[in-house]
Each structure stands twice: as C-alpha cells, then as structure tokens.
C-alpha cells in the first residue's frame, strides 16, 4: 500500500551524484582528454623514475619535476572540476584557472621534454619517457584547443570583467523611475 502512494511522486535526484560530467566547467570530451593527460604524464613520470643512471642529471630531474607536477595537479584539477567540490573551494574563475594551468604545463612539458631528449644516455627507458612526455604535451595542447573552441579565451569577455556577485557588473542605461512606491495622497 505504501509503495503505491510514494512511487509516482518520488524520483531520484540527478544532481546528487558525486560525478558531475558533463558540467559547466568540464564536458565529456575534455574529461576524457584530461584523463589522458593524467595517464600519459603518470607513465612519463614512472618511466623516468625507473632510469637508474644519468649523464645529465639536471635534464632528468627537471623532467621528473614537470611530469610529476603535471600528473598530480592535473589529477587534482580533474577531481575538483568533475565533482561538486569545485563549489566548496571558493574559486569562481575556474575557466581562467583551467586555461592558465593547462597552458603553463604545456610550456613546461615542451621545455623539459626537449631538454631531456637532448641530454640523456639514449637508453630505451629514457627514450620512452621522452616519448610519453611528448604524448602528454600533445594531450595538453589538444585540451587547450578544445577549451578555446568551446569556451573561447577566458580573459576576453567583451572587455568587461565578469563577476558572480554583481560587483563590477554592467548596469544597463535606463531612465529613473517616475512613480513613487509609497505614494500617499491626502
């Protein structure tokens, strides 16, 4: 008897899920690309860690730092943007954070991969680490291109800064009200 009463009126809440893909910050395609970024940078990091000796240790250590940073911070950004946690962090400019982070890591991956490919002992592990570094770079560049195509450049919004709380928002040109709210005529 109770199931007959409650079944037609109750429905599951689709927003109570822990994973919010697609969302306003991350669509399904960019979610998959970010997963690829995480996996490729992780493999590059692991392959670099397995290298037992180095000729130019600066190149190895710089590549290690960049690939580990790319892995950890991209994983963190992926988790934050694909869960409700981004609402609790207190950052309102997620598109700018995402774009700047992806561009910066792309640049660092390019520099570190070029330096490491130029200064290594040509072992198979080092060559494969460099290859995965360049594949991760390609994934980050694809992410930047997809971001630009879907959302545009995050810092250019008609020349005006956007705000979520109304500060700095553009006020439309309207005439002042002519009718009084509490018109008391006696």
Descriptors for this entry?
mainly alpha, membrane, transmembrane, CKLF like MARVEL transmembrane domain containing 6, Marvel
Overview of this protein structure:
The chain is mainly alpha-helical and 186 residues long. The chain has a domain at 31-151. The chain is 60% helix and 0% strand. It has helices at 2-6, 28-50, 57-81, 85-89, 94-118, 124-151. The radius of gyration is 25 Å and the shape is elongated.
Topology of helices and strands:
Layout: H1 2-6, H2 28-50, H3 57-81, H4 85-89, H5 94-118, H6 124-151
Helix pairs in contact: 2-3, 2-6, 3-5, 5-6
Mean pLDDT: 81
End-to-end C-alpha gap = 63 Å
Order of helices and strands: HHHHHH
Molecular shape: elongated
Helix/sheet category? mainly alpha
Largest sheet: none
- Oligomeric state of this protein: single chain
Radius of gyration: 25 Å
Instruction: Tell me what portion of residues adopts beta-strand conformation.
Output: under 5%
Task: Outline the low-pLDDT stretches.
Answer: 159-164
Helix content range: 55-70%
**Discrete helix count:** 6
- Quantity of strands, as a count: 0
Region (Disordered): 157-186
Domain MARVEL: 25-152
Biased composition (Basic and acidic residues): 177-186
Keywords: Membrane, Transmembrane, Transmembrane helix
């Amino acid at each position: 008897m109770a199931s007959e009463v409650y079944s037609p009126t109750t429905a599951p809440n689709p927003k109570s899920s822990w994973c919010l893909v697609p969302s306003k910050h991350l669509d399904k395609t960019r979610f998959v690309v970010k997963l690829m970024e995480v996996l490729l940078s992780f493999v590059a990091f692991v392959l670099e860690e397995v290298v037992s000796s180095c000729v130019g240790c600066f190149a190895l250590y710089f590549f290690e730092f960049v690939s580990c940073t790319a892995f950890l911070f991209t994983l963190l950004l992926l988790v934050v943007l694909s869960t409700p946690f981004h609402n609790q962090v207190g950052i309102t400019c997620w598109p700018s954070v995402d774009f700047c982070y992806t561009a910066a890591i792309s640049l660092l991956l390019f520099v570190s991969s070029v330096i490491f490919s130029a200064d290594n002992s040509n072992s198979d592990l080092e060559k494969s680490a460099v290859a995965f570094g360049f594949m991760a770079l390609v994934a980050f560049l694809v992410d930047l291109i997809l971001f630009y195509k879907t959302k545009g450049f995050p810092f250019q919004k008609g020349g005006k800064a956007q705000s979520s709380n109304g500060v700095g928002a553009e006020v439309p040109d309207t005439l002042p009200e002519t009718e009084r709210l509490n018109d008391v005529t006696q």
